[in-house]
TrEMBL record:
<feature type="region of interest" description="Disordered">
    <location>
        <begin position="408"/>
        <end position="431"/>
    </location>
</feature>
<dbReference type="Pfam" id="PF24663">
    <property type="entry name" value="DUF7651"/>
</dbReference>
<dbReference type="GO" id="GO:0008270">
    <property type="term" value="F:zinc ion binding"/>
</dbReference>
<keyword id="KW-0862">Zinc</keyword>
<dbReference type="GO" id="GO:0005634">
    <property type="term" value="C:nucleus"/>
</dbReference>
<dbReference type="Pfam" id="PF23320">
    <property type="entry name" value="Zn_SUZ12"/>
</dbReference>
<feature type="domain" description="DUF7651">
    <location>
        <begin position="51"/>
        <end position="251"/>
    </location>
</feature>
<feature type="compositionally biased region" description="Basic and acidic residues">
    <location>
        <begin position="408"/>
        <end position="419"/>
    </location>
</feature>
<dbReference type="InterPro" id="IPR056068">
    <property type="entry name" value="EMF2-like_DUF7651"/>
</dbReference>
<dbReference type="GO" id="GO:0031490">
    <property type="term" value="F:chromatin DNA binding"/>
</dbReference>
<keyword id="KW-0804">Transcription</keyword>
<keyword id="KW-0479">Metal-binding</keyword>
<keyword id="KW-0805">Transcription regulation</keyword>
<dbReference type="Pfam" id="PF09733">
    <property type="entry name" value="VEFS-Box"/>
</dbReference>
<keyword id="KW-0863">Zinc-finger</keyword>
<dbReference type="InterPro" id="IPR019135">
    <property type="entry name" value="Polycomb_protein_VEFS-Box"/>
</dbReference>
<dbReference type="InterPro" id="IPR057540">
    <property type="entry name" value="Znf_SUZ12"/>
</dbReference>
């Protein structure tokens, strides 16, 4: 919703000037729209990891307290029910469950040893933390949440000093239940809970006798209850229970929460309060702050990138950090949560241009280096000006045979004998100057290949000279990478394997270097070695290769990573470090985790 101020008090010229002043918002908004579209595929950070969002989510959780008030309960009658165990449990649906029995799964239990007095001092009560009201409604609709009241005094007497409920034990007990659906309906209609206050209610719980047996279901503990047989006598008890609910963040109230809803009917008041909580008014100032346009967003949403910030405090963090081209002024009253917005005009001025100087009249400096001419291209171009080389059709096309023919041609040209049956005098002269070679008919060699061959041939001729060979034998040559001495055959050989890497030797040297580290764990060294070997073999050179490399690494070593949890955590921490340095995006990290989860699923399947 957007509203603009009337221009009744402005003249026609002032209205035109005001519209031009408003257009200063166009460039920043256009820039943030581009960034928003880019962040859809490549977000700079995960929204759910922001601290203010996590805090706002935790403050909306509901704290539920259950107690037994002594004013409405006869302590002498219910004394035999203590200790009373209160659980927040979910039913387990399985074909193995018998018809007259029920199985519930729970993670934590609370024990009440007595009733609560009126003074509310030293209260004996059970505390539970529930999700926010919207998330709780989804669980309640499925009927998968209930509050259980279990009285098993006999079981506690047999296991004094041990755990509350040991596994695989059983005994007679009393069982009562309150479905969470009833509480949820009451809390949705409660004005106190909607306005951030404490909501209390009294409920009657019927306890029936049954047989209890404890067991385990994975990491969670389970209760199985069996109804008594038809011939046995069934006993029952009644309890009056006080249930209080309050939002965890209700104590931190702002003036906006103390608004008086006097004209709104009570039936729709809770819904209106929840809708009004996230409304924020944005006032866009323009024309020297004389005019403004107003926009209202819901759910504490940012008007520029539409990100939901979960609270007004979240907007205070998000707007200055993500949209620093604007000035923001935050203020809260009983009626509004508002933000005044204005454009930072000084940021549009160039930092290089001094104040009061026209950029068009400022001196512009440009420096360029002279381009170097490539030698290979000049050789190919100069070869156009020489006479073509003519060979007869009987010349073989392979490089080795061509090299043998070349040696023969060079020897004959040195003796001034041009009577070769296959090579003409022009051919011999051409091989004496290898840089004049242009093309060879009936051959599969291209001009660059021939030039490379000519250079190799020239080096071979120089090395084969007896005087040069004697000079080479007097000196000792070493490999530049390995610093190992070279044999004379390697020095005179045309083959150069200096840049070739032996993967086994490289892995051995990498492991030896990693073993020198003292403050690194064994699993971290293993991950370093796997990553170094992968990067070396796959030639991961640029920053843009990292996203592909992480996904390929997860596919290649995924089986080893999921089988070793410590190695798996090292890989996750390594991806987080890449993400911190801006080398890895969140989407690629998520894809890597999905790949590893698929490997875990394959291991779990029989």
């Amino acid at each position: 919703m957007c509203r603009q101020d009337p221009h009744a008090h402005l003249s026609a010229e002032e209205q035109i000037a005001a519209e031009e002043s408003l257009s200063i918002y166009c460039k920043p908004v256009e820039l943030y729209n581009i960034l928003q579209r880019r962040a859809v595929r490549n977000p700079s950070f995960l929204q759910r990891c922001l601290r203010y969002k996590i805090q706002a989510k935790h403050k909306k959780r509901i704290e539920m307290k259950i107690s037994l008030p002594s004013t409405v309960n006869d302590e002498t009658r219910i004394q035999s029910l203590f200790p009373l165990c209160i659980l927040l449990a979910r039913p387990v649906y399985s074909p193995a469950v018998v018809e007259d029995s029920a199985v519930y799964r729970y993670s934590r239990e609370c024990i009440l040893m007595k009733c609560t007095g009126d003074d509310r001092m030293n209260q004996d009560q059970a505390n539970f933390i529930l999700p926010e009201i919207n998330k709780l409604s989804a669980e309640v609709k499925s009927g998968s949440l209930s509050i259980l009241f279990v009285s098993c005094a006999e079981l506690f007497k047999e296991h004094v000093g041990g755990s509350l409920f040991p596994a695989n034990v059983g005994g007679h007990c009393f069982l009562g239940k309150i479905p969470m659906e009833l509480l949820h309906l009451s809390w949705e209609k409660s004005l106190n809970l909607s306005s951030g206050e404490r909501a209390e209610m009294l409920s009657t719980v019927d306890l029936h006798s049954c047989f209890l047996k404890t067991s385990c279901f994975g990491e969670d503990k389970c209760f199985s209850f069996h109804s008594p047989h038809a011939g046995s006598t069934a006993m029952s008890q009644q309890l009056q229970v006080r249930i209080a609910a309050e939002e965890i963040g209700a104590r931190e109230r702002s003036p906006y929460d103390s608004f008086a809803y006097s004209d709104i009917p009570s039936s729709t008041l809770p819904q209106i309060i929840r809708l009004r909580t996230g409304n924020v008014v944005f006032n866009y100032k323009y024309y020297n702050n004389k005019l403004q346009r107003t926009e209202v967003t819901e759910d504490f949403a940012c008007p520029f990138c539409l990100v939901k910030c979960a609270s007004f405090k979240g907007l205070r963090y998000h707007l200055p950090s993500s949209h620093d081209l604007f000035n923001f002024e935050f203020w809260v009253t009983e009626e509004f949560q508002a933000v005044n917005v204005s454009v930072k005009t000084d940021t549009w001025r160039s930092e290089i241009v001094a104040a009061g100087i026209d950029p068009k009249q400022q001196t512009f400096f440009f420096c360029s280096k002279a381009t170097r001419r490539r030698k290979l291209k000049s050789l190919v171009q100069s070869s156009k000006h020489v006479h073509p080389l003519i060979l007869d059709s009987e010349l073989p096309g392979s490089v080795n045979e061509l090299r043998e023919k070349t040696d023969v041609g060079v020897a004959e040209s040195g003796d001034r004998d041009a009577s070769s049956p296959r090579v003409s005098s022009a051919t011999a002269h051409s091989y004496a100057d290898p840089e004049c070679v242009q093309s060879l008919p009936a051959s599969n060699l291209t001009p660059p290949a021939l030039l490379q061959f000519a250079k190799t041939r020239k080096l071979s001729v120089e090395r084969s000279d007896p005087r040069n060979r004697a000079l080479l034998q007097k000196r000792q040559f070493f490999h530049s990478h390995r610093a190992q001495p070279m044999a004379m055959e390697q020095v005179l050989s045309d083959r150069d394997s200096e840049d070739e890497v032996d993967d086994d030797v490289a892995d051995l040297e990498d492991r030896r270097m990693l073993d020198d580290f003292v403050d690194v764990t064994k699993d971290e060294k293993q991950l370093m070695h796997l990553w170094n070997s992968f990067v070396r073999k796959q030639r991961v050179l640029a920053d843009g290769h990292i996203p592909w490399a992480c996904e390929a690494f997860s596919k290649l070593h995924g089986q080893d990573l999921v089988r070793t949890p410590a190695l798996h955590w090292c890989w996750r921490l390594f991806m987080i470090k890449l993400w911190n340095h801006g080398l890895l995006d969140a989407r690629t990290m998520n894809n890597c985790n999905i790949i590893l989860e698929q490997f875990q699923g394959q291991d779990a399947d029989p």
